[in-house]
């Protein structure tokens, strides 16, 4: 549904911190399903961990937040070029269930729980091969730049 070129219109992030490769489903105001391909060529594996490469949990959380950002921006029909930014505002109920390693494709689903006064709340899950790897409730704030 959205390739990397369109995703870049809705997220201000760029390499090496753009963590969404494709959006495969999008229901405005409701939910998004996106994915991140995990490659051994990513620089993070030089230090995390060289002899046992594990994709960092905090980067999975950031990928979730970026998926939330795409859903929020698309729902509001805004982009960062409109003078708006979607900031990571908080996280609750985080659980890491399984390691993510090179060769995995991480599917990220975010469902909008609420939006009040510019603060949006999402229930997020990350899965590899239909196995839950991470879940969290993420809050984002829509702000003017």
Task: Report on the architecture of this protein.
- This protein has 2 helices and 6 strands.
- The chain has one domain: Hotdog Thioesterase (Thiol Ester Dehydrase, Chain A, Roll).
- β5 and β6 form a beta hairpin.
- The relative contact order is 0.21.
- The protein is an alpha+beta fold.
- Strands 1-2-4-5-6-3 form a 6-stranded antiparallel sheet, with helices on one face.
Search tags:
6 strands, 19% helix, Thiol Ester Dehydrase, Chain A, 2 helices, alpha+beta, globular, 145 residues
Quick take:
By secondary structure, the chain is an alpha+beta fold. The protein has helices at about 5-10, 55-75; strands at about 20-25, 30-35, 85-95, 105-115, 120-130, 130-145. The protein contains 2 helices and 6 strands; from the N terminus they run αββαββββ.
Spatial order of the strands forming the largest sheet = 1-2-4-5-6-3
Strand content: 35-45%
Order of H and E elements: HEEHEEEE
Biggest sheet character: 6 strands, antiparallel
Cα(first) to Cα(last) distance is 28 Å
CATH architecture group name? Roll
Secondary structure class reads alpha+beta
Give the CATH H-level superfamily. Answer: Hotdog Thioesterase
Give average pLDDT, whole number. Answer: 96
CATH class wording: Alpha Beta
How many beta-strand runs? 6
Q: How large is the radius of gyration? A: 15 Å
The level of helicity is 10-25%
Summed up, the domain count is 1
Indicate the low-confidence ranges by residue numbers.
Answer: none
């Amino acid at each position: 549904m959205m390739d990397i070129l369109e995703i870049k219109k809705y997220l201000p992030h760029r390499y090496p911190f753009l963590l969404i490769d494709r959006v495969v489903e999008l229901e405005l105001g409701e939910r998004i399903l996106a994915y991140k391909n995990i490659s051994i060529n990513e620089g993070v594996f030089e230090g995390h961990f060289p002899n046992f490469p594990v994709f960092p949990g905090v980067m999975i959380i950031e990928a979730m937040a970026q998926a939330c950002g795409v859903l929020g921006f698309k729902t509001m029909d805004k982009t960062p070029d409109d003078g708006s930014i979607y900031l990571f505002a908080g996280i609750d109920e985080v659980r890491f269930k399984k390691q993510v390693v090179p060769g995995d494709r991480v599917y990220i689903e975010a469902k909008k729980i609420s939006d009040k006064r510019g603060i949006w709340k999402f229930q997020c899950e990350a899965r590899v091969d239909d196995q839950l790897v991470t879940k969290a409730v993420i809050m984002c704030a829509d702000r003017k730049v």
